[in-house]
């Protein structure tokens, strides 16, 4: 039997009194909703007698079922009218239907939009979106961290070797090279040349300081106040970076510049290279090396904070006047005599003094970031003089000045036949400049003069009776 959705086969009624044939559906197609009786065929079939045989299914009888309304589509509007003949029972004895067709109201105008919104999920709130993204990121990070932790635990729990024995050896690569110009490179170059000095005097006085080798003959340059205790007897012990100890002899010293030279025969320390302190610039990097508080081979770093600082230094009863390099590299007691070097490992100064907080007890203060070094240009000249003759010379003008006066250097006494007396300086004159460099105190004048050599000429500007004057002085010489 062939099934056709559009034209199902029906049985032709034999007698008009028989019930109207109903639509026959295939068993695999369930019927939804009430059965709609078909419309009688438009053409009249051939009259059949009571004994006529039934037409075979699928025959050529001119019969067609009225189109039925889809039962899967929602219907709106007025109810469908019944057939023109009213209710027609499908079989004999069928009861009259009591339920009347219900009215279905028409849909709202935006029904399709409502249906679309019903099937479209609303976007998540903005705040929730941020939280969601953060949660996802945290989850990913957690998974990665968890995986790493798991791998670590497995590796640690493994009793066998972690690395592949067939691979290259680890931890035995080439030696790392020290970068040129770094603090470590400077330290590696200079540390073998720096020594520690342990000084004992005949009067049981003691001092500890630093020094550095300046030639191949075993000469060591240091501060005068480090070795002053042994000037009239005592001992000077030198300890090299390698730990070797030797006894040194005092070659000469200069209280005026706070410099001294000692010598060790067969010194096991290479000599340093001198730079030029005159070419040092404020802000350049420097390294200080020495034995602060007896800690040999200590390295600190900083910058040149200032130049030409008038500083007084030296031991008890021996005042030195220095036109110093100022640095913020840490310098403490015991650093005295050690080198201040640039980043080319060349010595540009000798660490000699530190500023202290007012009221601090002597020997109890430490670095506050204000250290001072003797410029190597001056130290080199003095060291050469000490090695050659055991003595050093410094320039003078032959006049004393008031150390308590401010606003210049006021002359208190002029030595006879001195350079100052030859140019006409008198007691009471106030020197305000030397070679156009301002002078605001007696220390400033002394320091400025000692930056020159004996025999050089300088121009002095001064005031006498409120009137400015100017003279040119040829510097004299004094031993010390």
Summarize the topology:
Elements: H1 111-118, H2 126-157, H3 183-190, E1 194-201, E2 206-213, E3 219-222, H4 224-227, E4 234-239, E5 245-254, E6 259-263, E7 273-274, E8 285-290, E9 298-313, E10 320-327, E11 339-341, E12 346-354, E13 371-375, H5 376-389, E14 393-396, E15 399-401, E16 409-414, H6 419-422, E17 430-434, E18 437-438, H7 442-450, E19 457-464, E20 467-474, E21 476-479
Parallel strand pairs: 7-12
Antiparallel strand pairs: 1-2, 1-4, 2-3, 3-6, 4-5, 5-6, 8-9, 8-11, 9-10, 10-13, 11-12, 12-13, 14-21, 15-16, 16-17, 17-18, 17-19, 19-20
Quick structural summary:
The protein is α+β, with helices and mostly antiparallel strands.
Walk me through what this model shows.
- It is a single chain.
- With 480 residues, the chain is of the alpha+beta class.
- The protein is built from seven helices and 21 strands.
- It has a six-stranded antiparallel β-barrel with strand order 1-2-3-6-5-4. The chain has a six-stranded antiparallel β-barrel with strand order 8-9-10-13-12-11. Strands 15, 16, 17, 18, 19 and 20 form a six-stranded antiparallel β-sheet that branches.
- β15 (399-401) and β16 form a beta hairpin.
- The termini are far apart.
- Mean pLDDT is 77; it is low at 1-12, 29-33, 41-50, 63-80 and 147-162.
């Amino acid at each position: 039997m062939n099934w056709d959705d559009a034209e199902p086969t029906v049985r032709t009624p034999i007698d008009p009194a028989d019930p109207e044939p109903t639509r026959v559906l295939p068993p695999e197609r369930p019927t939804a909703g009430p059965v709609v009786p078909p419309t009688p065929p438009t053409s009249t079939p051939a009259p059949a007698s009571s004994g006529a045989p039934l037409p075979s299914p699928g025959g050529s009888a001119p019969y067609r079922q009225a189109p039925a309304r889809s039962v899967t589509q929602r219907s709106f509007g007025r109810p469908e009218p019944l057939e023109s003949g009213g209710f027609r029972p499908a079989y004999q004895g069928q009861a009259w239907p009591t339920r009347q067709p219900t009215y279905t109201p028409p849909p709202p105008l935006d029904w399709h939009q409502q249906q679309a919104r019903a099937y479209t999920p609303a976007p998540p709130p903005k705040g929730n979106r941020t939280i969601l993204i953060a949660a996802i990121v945290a989850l990913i990070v957690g998974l990665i961290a968890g995986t790493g932790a798991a791998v670590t635990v497995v590796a640690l729990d493994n009793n066998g070797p972690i690395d592949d024995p067939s691979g290259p050896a680890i931890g035995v690569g080439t030696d790392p090279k020290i970068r040129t110009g770094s603090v470590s490179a400077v330290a590696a170059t200079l540390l073998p040349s720096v020594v520690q000095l342990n000084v004992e005097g005949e009067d049981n006085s003691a001092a500890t300081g630093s020094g550095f080798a300046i030639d191949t003959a075993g000469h060591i340059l240091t501060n005068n106040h480090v070795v002053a205790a042994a000037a009239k007897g005592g001992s000077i012990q030198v300890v090299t970076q390698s730990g070797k100890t030797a006894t040194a002899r005092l070659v000469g010293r200069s209280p005026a510049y706070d410099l001294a030279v000692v010598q060790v025969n067969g010194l096991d320390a290479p000599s340093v290279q001198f730079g030029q302190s005159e070419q040092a610039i404020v802000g350049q990097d420097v390294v200080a090396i020495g034995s602060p508080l007896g800690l040999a081979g200590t390295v600190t770093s900083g910058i040149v904070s200032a130049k030409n600082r008038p500083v007084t230094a030296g031991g008890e009863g021996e005042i030195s006047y220095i036109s110093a390099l100022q640095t913020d590299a840490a310098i403490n007691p015991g650093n005295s005599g050690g080198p201040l070097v640039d980043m080319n490992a060349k010595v540009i100064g000798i660490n000699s003094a530190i500023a202290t907080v007012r009221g601090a007890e002597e020997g109890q203060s430490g670095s506050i970031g204000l250290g001072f070094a003797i410029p190597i240009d001056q130290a080199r000249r003095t060291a050469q003089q000490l090695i050659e003759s055991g003595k050093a010379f410094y320039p003078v003008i032959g006049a004393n000045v008031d150390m308590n006066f401010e606003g210049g250097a006021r002359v208190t006494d002029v030595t006879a036949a001195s350079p100052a007396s030859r140019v006409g300086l008198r007691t009471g004159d106030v020197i305000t400049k030397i070679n156009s460099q301002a002078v605001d105190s007696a220390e400033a004048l002394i320091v400025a003069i000692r930056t020159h050599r004996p025999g050089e000429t300088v121009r002095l500007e001064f005031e006498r009776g409120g009137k400015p004057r100017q003279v040119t002085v040829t510097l004299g010489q004094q031993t010390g």
